[in-house]
Structure formats: C-alpha cells, structure tokens
Write a structure and sequence with these properties.
mainly beta; about 90 residues; about 0% helix; single chain
Length: about 90
C-alpha cells in the first residue's frame, strides 16, 4: 500500500553467519520489498514479502551466499523506507 509507514529495521543476530532476522513494525497490512546492498552501493539481494501484518513482523533472510563484510538492508513499503546496517562473518 502506498504511504505505509515503516519503522527502523532491526537486524539480529548482528553479526550474521547465514540467516538474518529482520524485525520491522508496520502500521497496517503491507507488501514489503527487502533489498541488501554492499558498501559500494551495489544491490546484492532482493526479496519480496507480501501481506505482512500490522504490528511487529520478522522476515528471515538467507545471506549464506554473500561474502563476509558490512551490508545495508533496506525495507520498502510503498514510498516509505526503513534501513539498517549489518555485518556478515563466516
């Protein structure tokens, strides 16, 4: 839904080995696009999650195919964006 507010994204555990949990609060039912960027700004992963419920939501993200390093995750619901950094260790 356009204009759906998104609060900041929490990533845990941080640092991450293979699976990241992304926690976000939504003020209403929303479709969410999850994008992961490396520190050079290159999009390295993109996942869509449909019909996330109002309230707290947790999205599991498999990052086992990404190299160790620091990344930025962006969650988009409509035109509202929440971001956070996380570190992958191997």
């Amino acid at each position: 839904m356009i204009g759906t507010p998104v609060s900041p994204v929490s990533v845990y555990p941080n640092p991450v080995v293979d699976l990241a949990n992304l926690k976000v609060y939504l003020s209403e039912l929303s479709d969410v696009q999850v994008q992961v960027f490396d520190m050079s700004g290159r999009l390295v992963q993109s996942v869509a999650r449909n019909d996330l419920q109002k309230g707290d939501n947790t999205v599991r993200l498999d990052v086992s195919d990404l190299n160790k390093g620091t990344y930025v995750v962006k969650m988009v619901a409509g035109n509202i964006v929440g971001t956070s950094k996380f570190v992958i260790v191997k």
